[in-house]
Amino acid sequence: MGVNKKISFNLSPSSLNIFFKSPLLFYLQHVAKVPEDTKVPVCYGLSGNIVHTCLEKYAKGDLSRDGCI
Description:
The protein contains 3 helices and no strands. With 69 residues, it is an all-alpha fold. It has a domain at 13-60. Helix 1 crosses helix 2 (23-31). It is elongated. The model has no long low-confidence stretch (mean pLDDT 75).
C-alpha cells in the first residue's frame, strides 16, 4: 500500500523563477531535496524546449514537415 506524504515548501519569487526556467530543477531542489552539488543534465530542459517550440511552430503552420522555418 502506498503512503501519502504531504510535501510542503515555500514558494518564493526565486523558487518560482526556477520552476518557470526548469520544472525538473525545481523538483530536484524543492521536492526531492537533492543536494546542491549533484550534477543535473541541463540538456533535458533544453531539448524539451526545442521540441515544444518546433511542435508549436508546426501547429501554427510556421514550420513545414519537411523544411525549416
